[in-house]
């Protein structure tokens, strides 16, 4: 696991003023990576780092010659339209570039004149998915979500017997992953109306979001080579926000016996910024398993994972309806929870994914599954918050929701706070539902 070092020092200030506000998601201690270009320009996407309300253009910075040694090699790998090459370089290269960026963006840095010309305001940028994602796997790592949803789908048998032993997951679809800001048409499909014997076809009437964290694989592993638990995090580049949009009515009819299919693969939205595990180092926390629960099999068990395996990332879901947009009243918060409640850690998900010899590749994306906390208010989906549509969620302004309506935007946010450290955030992950095609 990444060690604390000078880049985490709360006292660091940047010559980019907006990075010092205390309220920004992107202080000097964060330095998340993404891919961007200036909006409306016919120019290539390239790597960038968020700093305050600006983006440092890594292609321009590399060209300006502000980095040396391993940091320069890392920056060069960020000059193209995806971060896969940089992700493949591994923790030493990631740390070298982070340290160089931290020093170059600090108050008093001699690099300021050269780098000032490499800044692009975030308000003038558009993003692409930060990596070419070869494969996307979605896990199911919240016991609270699995239990509540299991009860809705199978009242007599909510939690299947494998849940507490196996990190449950399925292979999702990479082609429909989009970056924050995307919109997509309400999916259509087969559903089985209540008390009906035959299905009907039409637009989903129970469209939902899922509040998840995305795990971007950095260094891959060879086919047939498993990644041990305590080596797993060396294969992880960083974390972002992920919305696994879900059509509950399609899901309810199709999901047995092989799991989610068309209920899930019409759209998945990720945040533009990937927060590195090194930036998250101050916010690690212990991972525990209740004494009465099965303890992990040896390949999913280690003292390091117990001591610091979890991440205390605060996660929020917000909804902005068409009415709220028209009235400029701002979105309504649906729920808030923390990634620390996950039943399995990031390292356990990676170790489990490779234990059979499955090869991960740079840029692969793993979803944690919907993150729901221990209380009903901490649920990460409308399915849970509305008790499967039986109890509308009040949004204020006379509006309520059981499931999503056309025009609704769902906004996921994430941040970390801890005494003695700078607050860092994930930006936002926004997606909007259009009417069915
Ligand atoms: Ca999911």
- Rg over CA atoms: 21 Å
Architecture of the largest domain in CATH? Answer: Alpha-Beta Complex
What is the averaged pLDDT score?
A: 97
| CATH fold topology of the largest domain | Fumarylacetoacetate hydrolase, domain 2
CATH superfamily of the largest domain: Fumarylacetoacetase-like, C-terminal domain
The amount of beta strand, in percent, is 25-35%
- What is the number of domains? 2
- Count helical runs: 11
**Ligand types:** calcium ion
The CATH top-level class label of the largest domain:
Alpha Beta
Give the proportion of residues in helices: 10-25%
Structural class: alpha+beta
Low-confidence regions: none
Described by strand count, sense and barrel closure, the largest sheet is: 8 strands, mixed
The number of E-state strands comes to: 26
Work out the oligomeric state of the chains in this entry.
single chain
Account of the protein in words:
The protein is of the alpha+beta class and 437 residues long. Helix content is 18%, strand content 27%. It is built from 11 helices and 26 strands. The protein has helices spanning 58-63, 69-76, 84-87, 91-104, 112-116, 143-153, 248-254, 303-308, 322-327, 346-354, 382-385; strands at residues 33-38, 46-51, 54-57, 119-121, 125-128, 136-139, 169-171, 177-179, 182-185, 188-191, 200-203, 207-208, 211-217, 236-243, 246-247, 268-270, 275-276, 284-285, 310-311, 314-320, 332-338, 365-367, 393-396, 399-401, 409-416, 424-434. Strands 6, 7, 8, 13, 14, 16, 17 and 22 form an 8-stranded mixed β-sheet that branches. It has a 5-stranded antiparallel β-sheet with strand order 4-3-2-1-5. It is globular. The structure holds calcium ion. Calcium ion (CA) binds at residues 138, 210, 212, 244, 367, 369-370.
